[in-house]
Design a protein that fits this description.
Blueprint (H helix, E strand, L loop, with lengths): L1 E7 L2 H8 L5 E9 L8 H5 L6 E8 L6 H11 L7 E2 L2 E2 L5 E5 L2 H18 L7 E4 L3 E3 L7 H4 L4 H17 L8
Helix pairs in contact: 1-6, 3-4
Amino acid sequence: MGIATFGGGCFWCIEAVFKKVKGIQNITSGYAGGTDPHPTYKSVCSGTTGHAEVLQIEFDETIISYEDLLKIFWTVHDPTTPNRQGNDVGTQYRSIVLFHNENQKEVAESVRDSIASQIWDDPVVTEIVPLQAFYPAESYHQDYYTNNPNNRYCQIVIEPKVAKLRKVFMDKLAEV
């Protein structure tokens, strides 16, 4: 079982995408990359903790590779805008890959360098840093898109990311 930790803006958006990918065993929305040992949604949104909204993804490496997860990650969010995704602005929304070991670091750097210019016109600003600690988010943030499909934010912001996954990565979908 592999574990990946990514942040690409609001964790609701990225979670909704990866929930549709085959080989994903579990996803936990949370906080990482900062210094506060007791982050909450309110404190992270204040911008004072240094944490980003992230996902911790448990995946079956015999079904999907870390490299493929990175390709999906860098395709479905905009990694060229520092500290923002659309209207979500702040350090908590930065693009970040938190690696668990040196191999993940090398793969992340390689994938970023090989696909960035193929997908994006502007430079990719995603941080690639070691994971120090992961803090699960409050329960109401888990499975947000699944539990709130009629929410306006879900329809306007999240659904286009899910649609992009379906269009670009049809072969990686758990459901067809």
